[in-house]
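EI: anyone free to look at a 336-residue chain?
SC: sure, send it
EI:
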Amino acid sequence: MLRLVKKPRSAQRLLSRRPLTASDADQKLFVDRSDLGTVTTAVQLGLNTFLAGPAGSGKTTLLRALQRKLEDAGEEVKYVNVEPATPQTGLFDLIRIAIEPDERGNIGRRPYVYDLDDLDYTLGERYGKQPLTLLIDGVDEKETAELFGRHRDHLWALEQVRWVAASRFQGPLPPPADSFFDRVLSLEPFGTDEGRELLALRVPQVAKAVRDALTGAIGSAYPFVWVLAAQRLMMDSTSVEDVIAEFAAERGRAEQLPERFRGLYDAVIAVGPVHASDEDLLERVGASRSWTATALKHLESRFGLVRSKRVGRRVVYEALRSQLMADATSAEGDNA
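SC: here you go
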């Protein structure tokens, strides 16, 4: 039976916090050099760029790599994750927080909604005419139409700002947002071949036959699952066969699902942690919110293939495939 040497807790903590692009080898896997070059050139020419791709295709990783490259060149760059946007803390609030982090405490206490006029003033006060690149991550179709369509002309007037937006929305950009962007780049999803390469990069000391067996057991999965798989191969004191058996058992139960439920489960794996109103999930499944909400509950209670947790007012579901790795890694850390 294959057994792996248990690593010190300090080593485990280091790897668990290691970003996807921590090494040159990882950079080659997660960041396509041609994509990074295309976006960098567009930014340097003052062109606005839109990145489209499914969950796990590397949009955020590419934005972060672009941020580091531009900052190394001495340019001003701000990364903005707009997924937490709410009616109380809107898109412009989140952009302002990135530009003026010292103003975070005022959010929610002001008697007016922060809008583009305020953003214009903030940019002028903070940067003057100095060029600034804003990396907007996580916009959906509605937010794209709102920010880059409805406010297109106003954004064009902010001459010192270059915009790079990333979205899981992959359809044609809604007009007039389609005319705001000079470049549109579509990213391919993270596939099994990339997962196999990730294991080879992270745990080269594990026999290729073992890595291939685990790759076959995992199948298609969100990139985070592959990172956790590499962690467990490196750190877990249980046998590799047990790890493979867990994934094989999960896949066996998934294959017994009715066709429509199987499509939903595959969509949860592809999208990552989701709630029943996630637009990308609904588009993949082709179902209503009410059916999706009920089906997700069945996947958890009847089939045991997803787990839920409450995040604010929403119930978020995650595929058991991800949880298998997360639980194992967490337990290993607790016992170290």
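EI: The first strand starts at residue 49 and ends at 52.
SC: 👍
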